Amino acid sequence: MTDRQWDRSAVDREASAWLVRLDNDPDDGTLHAQLQQWLARSPAHRASWERTLDLSALIEAALPSHGRSLANGKTDADNVVAFTPRRHLRERVLRHWRGVGGLAAAVFIGLLVFPHATLRLRADAIAGTGEVQTVHLSDGSKVALSPGSAMSFQSDGNGRNAKLLRGRAFFDVARDPHRPFRVAVAEATVTVLGTAFEIDLEDAGAAVAVERGLVEVAYPERQLRDQLRPGEAIRLDWHGRHINENVRPDRIAGWRDGQLFVRNRPIGEVLAELRLWYSGYIVTRGVGVATRRVTGIYDLRNPDAALAALAKAHALDVRQITPWIRIVTVS
Amino acid sequence: MGRAEENVEGSNGLEQLSLFITQRADLLRYISIIAADAMLAEDIVQEAWVRFNAAAATQTIHEPRRFLFRIARNLALDDRRRRGLEEKLFTGDNEKALFVASDAPSVERSVEAASELVLIRAALAKLPDRTRQAFLLHRVEGLTLVEIGARLGVSKSVAHELVTDAVEHCRAICRRGT
């Protein structure tokens, strides 16, 4: 490295330190004056500051939205849609067998596959473990299915009808005003003309988030009808309660590129999500699964690394039994 | 709405206006430090004020000064990012610009922009745990460096170093492009 390059990286680091100071105390007038002095030292300082601000803008776009709302002082509900709690058959079955070891669990694989078999009769597309499947529908629409998700699709002169049978999907709908595109999610219906949006189907309810276009969510049984615009999301449960949320459109369906954003969610939810990307079995136990909360960004394509990161930061005990089974204890 | 409520609202509005008038100079100086174009600082401050008022109409603002500065900061950063993208799309260096036939963003370019975000996310995922935690507490949770230090059991200056390390790590990854 030449002296000049070294100087530049030293100045860059100083600029980063100023950035952090300023974000920590944005309204401190003394700090503004000190930073102005630093900027006046040379054109290189000014240029480094500009680069650092551009980097900061990029980081801002890459991160989940602000966690603690300064407006009301509370941590607001999760803005990150790409996440759902889900009861897991694997978990329920294996719970009785924990500690028994690899042999017993291997026997259960046949049982575990069974529910897929019935689903296959109804579904046109099912995404396997660890893969995001892109489905091209006959009308030109595209659907990304997260691991383990399933959907069906029918199209005729009157309309286009998709059904999300399990999991979550991101729809990029081909525009066709004459044939509305509907997605049935249990008892609720989502209707669109041409748009891109995400739907999560959960045991307890469903969530819809809109990236582009206009979407109508109807849940007639509960007299709910709502229109969503880009950046808007709604979470509804099957008891008829619903929460409207705002989501940054570029953060919708982060799972499409294998990234999981989590803010202040129970650790059990993170593990449930990792499970979908893991070719073996992850068994969880301990009271902390539901109560311990985590914030982080995890690489879903490398579940073992994500597990290791979680274990280090949150004192989990991860035991490996055979190459396919991980037992995670959260105290 | 009753008269009493109107009065309460009116006095809140006045309080906010006086807040804005007293903060305006500070806010303007802050924004001219972080905006891409100093000429735009006025516009950003104005827009921040409009948004602050809209938020204040529907909720109680607990830290109004900090909240106002935060809105303005986000607007300035959004503007920077938009400019960065447009520069790449429409001007960039001359050699690349030759390949941009229309004034609409090309698919390749939006993919490129999206991949920068993927790079940053991947960079953060690879950070040492304590560094990543400090960084997320700072940027996502909005904790102060003192609060982060207390949370991680380190001093404020160590918390500052950790967050700076994370920013520098993102810089290095973006420069390398891997």
TrEMBL record, chain A:
It comes from the Bacteria. The keyword Membrane applies. Keywords: Membrane, Transmembrane, Transmembrane helix. The chain crosses the membrane at residues 96-114. Residues 127-216 form the FecR protein domain. GO terms for molecular function: sigma factor antagonist activity. Residues 13-52 form the FecR N-terminal domain. InterPro entries: FecR, FecR_N, Ferrdict_sens_TM. Pfam families: DUF4880, FecR. Signal peptide: none annotated. PANTHER family: PERIPLASMIC SIGNAL SENSOR AND SIGMA FACTOR ACTIVATOR FECR-RELATED (PTHR30273), PROTEIN FECR (PTHR30273:SF2). This is Transmembrane sensor. It comes from Sphingobium vermicomposti.
UniProtKB/TrEMBL annotation, chain B:
One of its GO terms (molecular function) is DNA binding. It comes from the Bacteria. Keywords: Sigma factor, Transcription, Transcription regulation. Residues 119-168 form the RNA polymerase sigma factor 70 region 4 type domain. Residues 26-84 form the RNA polymerase sigma-70 region domain. GO terms for biological process: DNA-templated transcription initiation. CDD domains: Sigma70_r4 (cd06171). Belongs to the sigma-70 factor family. ECF subfamily. This is RNA polymerase sigma-70 factor (ECF subfamily). It comes from Sphingobium vermicomposti.
